[in-house]
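Forwarding these from the shared drive since the link keeps breaking.
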Amino acid sequence: MRVGLVLPTFHADAARVTRLATEAEEAGIDGVFLFDHLWHLGKRGRPALHGPTLISALGVATSRITVGSLVARVGIQPNPVLARMMGTAQRMSGGRTVAGLGIGDGLSREENEAYGIEFAPRPARIAELVECCRAIREESVPVWIGGATDAMWSTAAGEADAVNVWDVGPEVVARAAQVAQPAEVTWAGLVRMREGSEAISARMKAVAEAGATWAIGAIVGMDDGDVFRFADIAASTLR
């Protein structure tokens, strides 16, 4: 199993995010990932860095690790635009980019509508997701579909390289692995360093045993030094 980190993009500066990415590479982390929100969900006044743009910058700043979105929502920009952005990131990173894609949920509606972007009904968003997957894969970029339902996993089975499940238990990982075949299953979730290394390690082991090929942590309130602490926990877990 490979290990990744979600880097902070809410109320953050790009220089710090870039430094965290290079620290992750130095620490032996396998990949870094970025949210794609126009603001911090539920906190409209807080700014957010634009994930798909920043991916390209991290691809240049690093040399080994995977860089990707987790996840970019379809419909925020036209599919051909997002596909070209991901294709550009792939070329700038030397082939290390992954496009995590999603359709959003009810929490995303306000964000869409504030910018005059239609929040289409779910069937239409899934259809747009399929079109986007195909366009991005034509750019030679692997695609992960984010979601926690059989419908999303079945879509990934035919249209993506992996599914990504967010903050779920090992039983859901196992179910996703069954439904999404031949697509892989990747796991991501919130990590609170105060929980301690044993609890974090046990969670990572559980999702690995359930079939996850990646465990990606989104460290709550990431402090300086947390990248190396998380890397040490991951190394001891997978040793």
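-- next protein --
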Amino acid sequence: MGWIVLLYVLTSVGVGFWAARRVKNTQDYLVAGRRLPLLWTLSLLFSTWFGSETILGASETIATEGLLGVIEDPFGSALCLLLVGIWLARPFYRLPVRNFGDFYALYFGKWTERIATPLMIVSYFGWIAAQLVAMGQVIKHFTGLSLPISMAIATVLILSYTIWGGMWSVAAVDLLQNAVIVIGLVVLIAFLPSGWEARLGELPDGFLRFIPPATPSAWMNYLAAWMIIGLGSLPQQDMYQRVVAARNERTAVQAAIGAAFLYLTIGLFPLIAGLFVRLHHPEWLQGGGESASILRLIESYMPPGVQVLFWGALVSAIMSSASGGILAPAALLAENMIGQWQRFSPLTRARLSVLLVAVICFLMALYEQNVYDLVGESSIFSLVTLFVPMVVGLHMPRWCSSYGAIASMILGIGIYYLMKVGEPVIHPLWYGMGGACGGYIGGLLIERFRRIRLYAAT
């Protein structure tokens, strides 16, 4: 079976190299020349977060915490894609900017962009590193190699086609891999014994509750779970990059809405697997480690020859998320931070940036033992820093303020981490958002007052 999975991985890499033939310039490399058709764009958007956390993490979480424990993913992720389709796809597509870092320069000035760009870049590292760890664990499972060597192999495999073909390679590989994801998860559910769902009544009271108890703190935390990815992933380079890769606005809108419904549908399959484990094999949840239960489920209920479909689905999800994740911060790094480095062409700078991001994330995965703890933080990080200025820039341009944007970013992240230390009853995200909104209003008032004083002095 290991050889079949290896053959599949090499086939995916080959598809990436095949698609790389379309790359002729930087626009081809970073946004596929803005020429992707509907199916390709839908697949690309679906792959934004459908990685190891959705297949492995969500199944484990619902088995231990119930339905309220998985609001963030897949439900919050589907909400984010839906909001992109009905709210942001058209404004994003019309922006006269190269990347999302330029958006902050356009509306709030260069200094704001110099702060926003590094914040966006750093927010990706934990997510990418987590995918490299997951891919390394798969390789270790089949080869018996050490985890560091397996992660190095994973990094090289994902980097090989991403660095060469950019968004064209990512989109082509995603299209192949998403088909495998769907087939693999459908087959997994099909092999579970029939009639097991009749035991759902044995679950603890409230285990399948989708609405929280009627208390203020419960509702605040419930809404925070929806917001983490649902809103936090909107002001991000990867979302902007995938939207503008579509061949026109209509395609971008339709693809985002379609991806939202696909994500919600396919994202339910790992939840079903987690419920089955909870009912029939609760002993697997005791000290098995993250994701151990669903892997044992595969080994116990799927014939060896069919297990390859699940492993193919898992590998596909990881590679799709990792490759697209690497490309997003690399685009910001190439165009906004080392764009003045004229020694190399723009396309070469973009490829060097992909290499640099991959190396940093590999080192992070190698030395950070709790790398999975950083995954959820990436969306919160952008929510409390970048969301408020994005909304003002898109919908209230008259109230744009560089002072306000910078103060919003600094106070949002500062207050969030300050309140997180004390483990408050209400999710610290709310305090961070309060700081972001208050910071923007305060900065705006200071800037307007300063302008009035300067005007009066002249």
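The mean pLDDT is 91. The domain at 2-370 is CATH 1.20.1730.10 (Sodium/glucose cotransporter).

- D.
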